[in-house]
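Q&A log
Question type: sequence-to-structure
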Amino acid sequence: MSGGQIDLISLTKRFVEVAVDNVDLTVSSGEFFSLLGPSGCGKTTTLRLIAGFEQPTSGRVLLDGADVTHTAPNKRKVNTVFQSYALFPFLSVYDNVAFGLRNSDAGKATIRAKVHQMLELVGLTQYEKRRPAQLSGGQQQRVALARALVLDPAVLLLDEPLGALDAKLRRSLKVELKALQERVGITFLYVTHDQEEALTMSDRLAVMRAGKIVQMGGPHEIYDEPADTYVADFLGVSNLMAVTVAERGPGQKCTVRLGESVLAADHGGTDAPDLAHAVIRPERVRIEQFGSLGPNRVPGMIERLVYLGSATQVIIRLAPGQQIQALVQNDGSAAELSQGTPVHVHLAPDALRVLAGEEVARDEDVLEVA
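Response status: OK
Response body:
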């Protein structure tokens, strides 16, 4: 189905606090777009405004250029999959999927053909006579998707649909969900607090905080180029170190002081204040033998090793006092590491980014309204 572009124009929703604060956003037709943020940041309220379950305090919601701000939910070409799935326990899989069609003008033959098409799409044709209680969590999620897609929506809204599943099943269904979206070709707007889900599936994503979008872009862009420490800390694991900007160079380059160590950073020097934070991802931290010479090397001591299977998380206390972590792949190439070993860590200039903002994204910074 063509269409499915969403435009939010100065969208605001106020309860007791402001839950959605003057949001402007365009989601292109056929795009997999995620709203990412902690509980209370406004992402679910934004989704409910698009669905029509909430009315905005101000602003507009456009679907394919048409203003649907005050259109009833059942009159919008939008459907929603909830975290709880909301399946009818007394109906079979077939009847759950067919429920919406039976409330339309579709004939029996059309209903039968469309339901079978959707069940085949989600791989559940052999389960059509079962009831939800006889299905696994992943199978119930597929039924909810089929029931939403059978009505040919222009936009599918997904409110943390993998949240009730175990970790292993979530990993496999992330891949399936993205593949399904590519096959049906409609717009998916996905709400999640799980950064791995957003990075895995999204064409673009927006990170939200206190009702506002703080950064928007592709997964690689936001992960590698966070706008501030809040985004860096929320999207993946980050080492955030309080530094003083000592000298600003050409472009985005600068020199910072971390205790007695002087580090060169290739990114962020122009925009960051004098008192800032340097950020580096754990996979970019290189552990070297103590006494290694060269620039951007800081002495430290290994405090703890956490075995993760394919990799080992190494917690290091730097000489200036900061604790950072490195991620070392268990491929047999790394030297044997042990707790209490003195080391030097190499923080490469191209991996260091100097950012403004608080040290971490604290819970008290968000509202109680989802």
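Response note: DSSP finds eight helices and 20 strands in the chain.
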